[in-house]
Amino acid sequence: MLQTSTHHHFPPQLLPRHPLCLRISLIISAHRRPLLRHQSYTHIRLRVSSCTKSSSKNTVAELVKAVDGQKANDQQQQQVKRPYPFHEIEPKWQHYWEENKTFRTPDEIDTSKPKFYVLDMFPYPSGAGLHVGHPLGYTATDILARFKRMQGFNVLHPMGWDAFGLPAEQYAIETGTHPKITTLRNISRFRSQLKSLGFSYDWDREISTTEPDYYKWTQWIFLQLMKRGLAYQAEVPVNWCPALGTVLANEEVVDGVSERGGHPVIRKPMRQWMLRITAYADRLLEDLDDLDWPESIKEMQRNWIGRSEGAELDFVVINGNGQEEEKRITVYTTRPDTIFGATYLVLAPEHPILSSVLSEAQSKHVEEYRELAIRKSDLERTELQKEKTGVFTGCYARNPANGQAIPIWVADYVLGSYGTGAIMAVPAHDTRDYEFAVKYSIPISWVVKPDDGDGGNFERPYSGEGTMINASSSESGLDINGLPSKDAASRVIQWLEKSGNGKQKVNYKLRDWLFARQRYWGEPIPVIFLDDTGEGIPVSETELPLTLPELDDFTPTGTGEPPLSKADSWVITKDPLSGKAARRETNTMPQWAGSCWYYLRFMDPKNSSALVDKAKEQYWSPVDVYVGGAEHAVLHLLYARFWHKVLYDIGVVSTKEPFKCVINQGIILGEVQYTACKDDKGNLISADSVAELAEYNQEKIPEEKVMKSGDFFVLKDNPNVRLIARAHKMSKSRGNVINPDDVVLEYGADSLRLYEMFMGPLRSWRLIVGSPSPAGSYPDGTSTVDEKPSIEQLRSLHRCIDKVTEEIEGTRFNTGISAMMEFINAAYKWDKLPRSIIEAFVLLLSPYAPHMAEELWSRLGHSNSLAYEPFPKADAAYLKESTVVLPVQINGKTRGTIQVEETCTEEEAFRLASLDTKLSKFLDGKSIRKRIYVQGKILNIVIDAQKKVKVAQ
């Protein structure tokens, strides 16, 4: 793995009046193998920090607001301070590209040419518009797109909008503005900002998930899922937010409250549409091996899918008299060999059998515990570091291996959505179970001896494999004593199946995808329900798209019914086949739906008769390079892969996977928020002693009262109080957004593009065009001359070509820019700038700074855009090392060395020696008797030490 790390700041002259110092750290890793073979990837992490200490009265939001208020006053100064005339160049070329559709990918193309499909994860068009984090990934894909066009590839580089979602609906509730109006306004702003940065998108292919022509095919895919039994309804526990009136995904719930608005969230069983993604678990897992993705992302998906092999086994519930009942508790375990060590069972609080296995004495305690548990997210409940809690149900079950009665507990660290919602707890061989057993004085029975241990001195749980001990029963007929763990597991499974107590089972952590939201602003689900039977009937494909009805009231109903239920004239319908009365589904699809397949629609966005034309899909698939944030590493990428595989099975797509190469771009983080916990009396409590955050009051702490202590943050006045520290993404709601418009206005789009990649364009402009007049105007044309370049100039150019090409192909953009900076530094020392050299350099520069490059290309005498000019190729003849270190002797004694070309003449070698400060003192004023020169080997200067050359007075 080749890794290059650069840490640098936006220089003061770039943002001279901005109160925030933007610090960008690019950590770029890539395979040595070139991107041309789709075997490279990059990880880009960014962090923004404030360069000023902010107080509660002087927040980031106020600082940014001050900048916005100063814009008008600064306008005149900005015009004077412009480093070069980008304010004329950039609009000029953006207009040219749009007018001439320079980057449009024709519907009909020469398919004999190689293709390159480079795609950004398309954005949600929020009201905040772009911030400086967005252009980072977009600039990277744009460099690749421009580079590949110049290399002769057919390039597909589109942009669109993932525009359904909760924020627009919440804005509609607050203001009465229809979500469509808000969305179109936000899209317009995003589009203009992207165009101002000169990205070479094919805007003729622009799509939005909210357009009926688009979501017609999202609905069509849903119907195909229904036909294959992959879409079904079930009553499942969900994250229900009463204030927002909708179900939230796990990642939308933080510390028991909604990420948006901070409203309480509870777990509530509701009828929901589900997608059977688990049916594709094995394929989703196996096909990861063939993908050129960051290994960390593939591992995250493997862990999310969580395939494991084990056994399901039944524990019979016994009553107070020790008699067996009809009820059975089924558990799943990956360690059936440890069955003799199971000393208690644990049920999830939402387990359906729980209410029927409660003693009268424990019933109240269990119900109170269940109420607390349903308010927590799955993540909170399963945190490894949190203290485990639980309540005894008052009932028992029989361990089938040894016949012992073991207690049944309820604990929130067991999830109803995973496995069977119940576990057999083996405290001797599981750390979590051990902590629980010690806390509640539950027996611990060791049944696995480590192969390197004596087996008689157990002081802590052992979770590894070994040799079985204390593992036999004449009553059950099961004896695995002395067997290795793996052999014992196989023996137990055979016994379970033979005795009827269980079976072998493959299990997954992956759960079916909850595919319904109680919202208005989403894709309508194309299903109706008959009034008399409740049967769900899919809408005919010929009736698609099923469009959203117009609503004036988007507020939650308060009952759990979605806002669409208010649209009576739309909801009440008839089954077209039977004529029976029916009602439409009033849940809508989640925002993830439209983003699962948009990459396919970009291939054929205007097709009204098919999701995508087969020939076009076969040519463009798969996406060659897909760039986006690592926060989408699991859910979006996993969902898109699932839908793609379904489409592959029904013959819509020709590849098993949608994205060949994925590049992760991190998010820019704004300020860090520090929070202290307080008890009911207002006393501060250290965060490391808090088991459940939701049980304590929280208070924000100003940054000036915080200090770092080891890996944690604490109060300056009381270092014993550890704080909760959380960095937030840039967002308008947090007031920590740095708007790229400000940078573009003052320094130009190319400056922003290149600073996000590493450098600014000013020196290139000054080198080729020249310095401005006192009035600030620049000369027409360039400073180049129509002369043959020197060997030195050709070598400098071709080294630059070679390095830039290699670094773009490896997505190491910052080091590619370094190579161009080295060229510029060398060129500033030349007496003349040969036109052929500068033209080639301008082509190298164009993927990075396209506006300036187009202007320079025009000034060099070309009438057409350089967008499709061949990218320069390095000539190997100029890449060889051509300089040597030449020893210089004075009267036979070596006095120093000089660096010369291999073909250096005697005169040139003597001239360089005379200019060398170390050697010149031996030659100054001396009479040269003769010179002995062996090319590339040595220069010996023989001087007359007795005679000095008389200097004219």
From TrEMBL:
Q: Where on the tree of life does the source sit, at the highest rank? A: Eukaryota
Give the protein's recorded name: leucine--tRNA ligase
| Limits of the Aminoacyl-tRNA synthetase class Ia domain | 509-691, 728-755
What sequence ranges are listed for the domain Methionyl/Leucyl tRNA synthetase?
A: 121-253
Recorded hits in Gene3D superfamilies, A to Z, give: HUPs, Isoleucyl-tRNA Synthetase, Domain 1, Valyl/Leucyl/Isoleucyl-tRNA synthetase, editing domain
GO biological processes: leucyl-tRNA aminoacylation; post-embryonic development; reproductive structure development
What the entry lists under PANTHER family is as follows: LEUCINE--TRNA LIGASE, MITOCHONDRIAL (PTHR43740:SF2), LEUCYL-TRNA SYNTHETASE (PTHR43740)
- Matches recorded under PROSITE patterns: AA_TRNA_LIGASE_I
Keyword Membrane found = no
Q: Which gene encodes it?
A: LOC107832508
Q: Where is the Leucyl-tRNA synthetase editing domain?
A: 302-497
